[in-house]
Fold each of these.
Amino acid sequence: MDLGISGKTALLCASSKGLGFASAKALAEAGVDLVLNARGAEALEAAGEQISKRYGVAVTTVTGDITTEAGRAAVLAAAENVDILVTNAGGPPPGKWTEWTRDDFIGALDANMLAPIAMMQALLPGMMARGWGRVVNITSQSVKGPIPGLGLSSSARTGLTGFVAVTARDIAHTGVVINNLLPGIHATDRAVALDLAMAKRENITVEESIRRRTAGIPVGRFGTPDEFGATCAFLCSQYSGYIVGQNILLDGGGINATF
């Protein structure tokens, strides 16, 4: 399928690996030029080189922490007129509500709520003025259904969800649409970290942790990054203009809900 976005430019945060990298590859395959961002320079440069060689699109890399003002400023300087924004940031570590301090919550809000909001506030006006734009926020299935130990992440990402619900509808008439992608467990470094944390917390093996987590997924497996990337690219395409302010689950049926 021709997604109708060849020649456009996308900014993808936290895109040197995992779901961000998979999304970048899918957009590059559709002919989109890229501005990639991540904190680790070596992994980011390798990702950019791999994509540019394989797909022949222009790739700009900007190393920096998108959750800080300085990091955002550096990225925005290279991505002022992008047509597509994909926000993404790693979640805070798992834990228990009895352990979290105010600083823990502020850190989660900065990374998983306030940083993507700041990026949208910076880039949406240009998209609106040009009459076309796509924003996809990579959040988590935890905003639809609670996940034990992920209260910090759920709190911050739910706040972002509320912001998008209002803002997406405010600006939809301009040709700019905003949606959220809610991944369940995918085979990424994040999944490995959560499996290790569960194994330590429950005093079980990592293999047992994986078995327990896949047991709750109707398809019986973790998702693949390529599946996620293709869905992200579709939400950035010419065909997504009537999908506004939605929270789209990619969780293998794991969230047991009718609506």
Amino acid sequence: MISEDIKELDAARARVAELEKTVAAQMTAELASLPAKYGFADLDGLIAALKAAAGVGRKVRKAKAASGAGAAPAPRRKRATITDAMRAEVKSMVEAGKTGTEIVAALGISLPSVQNIKKALGLVKPGK
């Protein structure tokens, strides 16, 4: 009884192993035919086209990606010069309850700059 079950299990394992070999051979053949199926001379051409379509190997700025592939990249902004007057303005705006985004829009400086000024002036809540 148990010996019959063991024989049956061994036979099933043999069938699974044979199926795995068959499937592996079919997959290899199918993958090898992909370049010709899509009009490429060789695998390297297909891989290059896939990488180009996926954007692999190149860095795309968000502004360029949003504006479309043919658009010229946006010019880089100059670094803002943070003056004492600007620090005072940030302080008064924070005390007036303005958000970081509102301060950025009003003063034309980056959000990290606003955060750095707030931190230097001690306007950041403890734990943040």
Amino acid sequence: MADDHNRMRIRRPWQIPWVRGLLVACVVGAVAAAIIESWHYIHIYAQKIIEKRDHRPLKRIVLLNTPHWLSKSLLDQIAQEAVNYTIFNPRHPDYAMQLRDPLNGNILKILARHYLQDQSVGENAWIKRITFIRRAWTPSEQIIQIAAVYRQPVAVVVGPTGGYLLSPGGVRLPGLYKTSQLSALRWLIQIIGSQAAPPAAGSHVDTPRIKVALQLIHLLSPQPYYGQIAAIDMHNLGGKISSLAPQITLLTRFGTHVWWGRAPGQEGFYEVPAARKLQSLASIYARFGRIDADRAYVDIRGDQVLVPKPTTQP
């Protein structure tokens, strides 16, 4: 019995509290030392990568999922803006080193912020939203990939000397076009009579005439006859020129007119609502194949569509 009692009192070394604490401390210290040593080697490895690539410029900025209606020259300029802002930025010469650093993700956020906040610079206003910016590698170079949502032009605002492009949301897009160049943009509706100087690229155009014109384009664009509309004349909006003449006139690609009338939602008791006007245009199009009924003009402001009498031949 005494031997059994003595054996119960004898404890193994790791059962002694202070020994167990010492062992735990040693294990924790060993793990911490391994982590520090691993981080040290990772840092040295990253430094070697940076030093290896530091003597040459970043070779490629790749734009992903680009829309077909943006020309290659515009896409090249959008990509070049990333190079100019990071690699050749005199105000922030450290950006070049940060962009080459494979462990630096902050510079990618800075680049995305530049595209969205400095929209008056270069072609940046084409970009509506950045989806992601990430690094990719080939055996010989680092690539920065940029995926974005781009603004699409919906109209050309035409003035005395030329015009500029406008997005559906009313953002003025980069570029000014001379009158002689507008024929190349025939696939876009022209807004004439806006009476506003071109704002800076990337800014919202919120004049009443532009707002109403974009509202009308939104109503007309889903219609099958939309391609027959060449321009929207806003000169007389609000009856500024004549209280009897139509406030808004659609100019067709046949050189004829559709008298639309007041702005959508502003018809009151004077005209039929916009939905009724769309029905009238649909009926005319279904019957004649063109929204002008093959006449010089059609008036869709009232319950009955009015057209001029055909010219009698002698």
